[in-house]
Design goal:
- There is one protein chain.
- The protein is 33% helix and 28% strand.
- It contains eight helices and 13 strands.
- The strands form three sheets. Strands 1, 2, 3, 4 and 5 form a five-stranded mixed sheet that branches. The protein has a five-stranded parallel sheet with strand order 7-6-8-12-13, sandwiched between helices.
- The radius of gyration is 20 Å and the shape is globular.
- The protein starts with 6 loop residues before the first strand and ends with a helix.
Length: 307
């Protein structure tokens, strides 16, 4: 099994000095390992051009549902996706810097993020996960695009697997009920009062997200609480900044976002949930740049949980 907390590498990107070279953005960066500058100055090139990003978007969002016979185009898109990690490795050359598994943080030299460190102390025996689930069920369960048990089934199976393997660290899984914003905040506050700040190492959001292009903002679709206190079958839009502040308040260091387009980077910084969370001190974030089908969402959750 890979280390629970791999070696952490921080990359500081000077975003205000970014330039366009051959249809790709290029940033001056420096690389920090264990608090020591490993590379003072080098260039990080965007692995994909805008045209290649749009082909990836077409493949993930439209190929299966709308154009299943466009296999040649799909194969080219798959090749581009597979080249992404290799292109980053070539630019950063991380294997030269450290042979171990690494966790990356990308920060701008402007607007430095709060520094919240997530570790397990020697006395802690559990990795604590909080799952947030929300769906609009006003049209009936059969109308849902993604099974509301998608993430919970995967996390529960992982929990059983770790327990069966008799690992020294167990997974403690709790679920926010109902999936409203106030229930999330209450759950985090209760855990802090009963245990300690930063009790939950990871919060997993299994809900829908949306990008509001005109407003340059992003939202989560939480379950809606009516004025009388009852929980509605519908969802309500909550600004990503609001959610990020709550997670920062309770020192959450890791987040998995099953919300579609939660890492979309071509509609402005205000609509990139992953970047918003990073600015609020959340160091480890897994998010999606594109809208995906249920099968892809399950695969993402499965891989994220095992990592």
């Amino acid at each position: 099994m890979a280390p629970l907390f791999p070696e952490h590498i921080t990359i500081y990107a000077k975003s205000h000095l970014a330039e366009q070279i051959n249809e790709r953005l290029v940033w001056p960066i420096k690389i920090i390992i264990r608090g020591i500058t490993a590379v003072q100055s080098c260039k990080l090139k965007a692995p994909l051009t805008n045209a290649e990003k749009e082909e990836c978007r077409w493949y993930l969002e439209n190929f299966v549902a709308e154009a299943p016979y466009s296999t040649t185009r799909a194969q080219k898109a798959v090749k581009v996706l597979k080249s992404y990690a290799e292109a980053l490795q070539q630019d950063l050359n991380l294997l030269r810097l450290t042979p171990t598994q690494v966790a990356l943080s990308l920060k701008q030299t402007k607007n430095a993020a709060a520094n919240i460190t997530t570790t397990l102390s020697p006395c802690e025996q559990s990795f604590n996960v909080l799952l947030v689930i929300a769906r609009d069920t006003s049209r009936g369960l059969k109308m849902l695009e993604i099974d509301p048990n998608c993430a919970s089934a995967i996390l529960t199976a992982l929990q059983r697997s770790v327990t069966g393997a008799r690992c020294s660290i167990k997974i403690n899984l709790e679920v926010v009920r109902p999936g409203t914003l106030d229930s999330l905040e209450e759950h985090l506050a209760r855990a802090e009062n009963q245990h300690h700040p930063g009790y939950f190492h990871l919060v997993h959001f299994d809900l829908h997200g949306a990008v509001r292009k005109k407003r340059n903002s992003a939202v989560f679709l939480f379950s809606k609480r009516n004025s009388d206190g009852a929980v509605s079958d519908e969802t309500t839009r909550i600004d990503a900044h609001h959610v990020a502040k709550i997670l920062q308040r309770y020192a959450v260091g890791m987040v998995v976002l099953n919300a579609c387009e939660s890492a979309r980077a071509n509609c402005g910084d205000g609509s990139n949930v992953a970047k918003i969370f990073a600015k609020h001190g959340i160091k480890n974030i897994i998010a999606m740049s594109f809208g995906v089908l249920e099968s892809a969402s399950k695969l993402c959750s499965n891989l994220a949980s095992k990592q």
